[in-house]
Amino acid sequence: MKYFLLTTLISLAFLTSCRTLQNTQKPSAGAAHQSQEQQYKAAVVAKAQTAQCVTAKINMDVDADGKQISCGGSLKMKRDDVIQLSLTFLGFEVGRLEFTPKDVLVVDRIHKQYSRASYGEVDFLRQADLDFYTLQSLFWNEIFTPGSRDVRSQLNRFRLAASGDHTSLLLTDAPKLNYQFLTRTSSALLDRVTVDGKSTADQGQFVWKYDNFTTLSGKPFPALMEVSINGMGKKAGFTLALSRLNNDSGWPTRTTVSTKYTQIKATSLLDKLAGMAQ
What we know:
Blueprint: H1 12-25, H2 29-45, E1 53-64, E2 67-78, E3 82-89, E4 92-99, E5 104-108, E6 113-117, H3 123-127, H4 132-139, E7 159-163, E8 166-171, E9 177-184, E10 189-197, E11 205-216, E12 219-230, E13 236-246, E14 262-263, H5 269-275
C-alpha cells in the first residue's frame, strides 16, 4: 500500500498509529478482488426462487438413443420434497416421473407398469452423481455443490472465470466430476450447467441449459430447459418448454400406484421413458 509522506515533526508513535489506521481503512487489491468475487457469487444465489412450490404446463421432447418422443403434461415441484413430471398424449396421462429425496418413481400407464429405484440404480443419475437435491437445483435453475444442501456455506469452493459476456463458477474439487456453472455477467442469471468426468476413462458429459427467462413471484425463472447426455454409450436428452408458470401448492405431493400395476426392475430412467412410446 502506498502511504502519504509524513513530516519529520510527527513522532514515530503517531506515524505507527496512522499506518495502522490506514491499513484498516484501505483493503489490499487482493482483498477487494476477493470481496467482488464473493459479491458476484452471492448475486447468483440471490436469483433463487423464494416460493416453496413451482408449477407449470409443459411440452416435452425426448431423444433416447435416436428415438424421439413428444408429449405434453405438467411439472410440479415442492422445495426439498418432490419433483413431479406428468406426461400426457391427447389429453391422457401416459407416464409420470416422480423424484423425492428417497427414490425415483417411473409410472408407465400405457403398459400398467412402474419402477421404483434409488438414485444409484438409475444409470445416468449415478454416472452424473445426481441425487434429489442436485436435481432440484437443476430444475429450479440454481447452482449447487454435490452432497450439500446449503450452497451458501460452500461458495468459497467456487472459482470464477470470466469469458466475454459470461462468468463461470467452476467447481473442481469434487472427487470424480468437474462442474461448470455458466452465468450471464450482466444479470448473474444461470445459463448452463456442465458436468464432466475427470478421468480419461470417463468421457461422459451432462449439460443442462436454460433460456426464455420470465418473472415468477418477482424472481427470474427459465421457461425453456434443454438437457443432453453424451459419451456413455448412447446419446440422450430432452427439452422442456414451460408455460402457465405459477406457485400453486394445492396438489398431492405423492403418487399412489394402483395395485393393478406390475412393478418391474429399474434399468435406466431414459430407457423406461422411451418404452412408453412402444
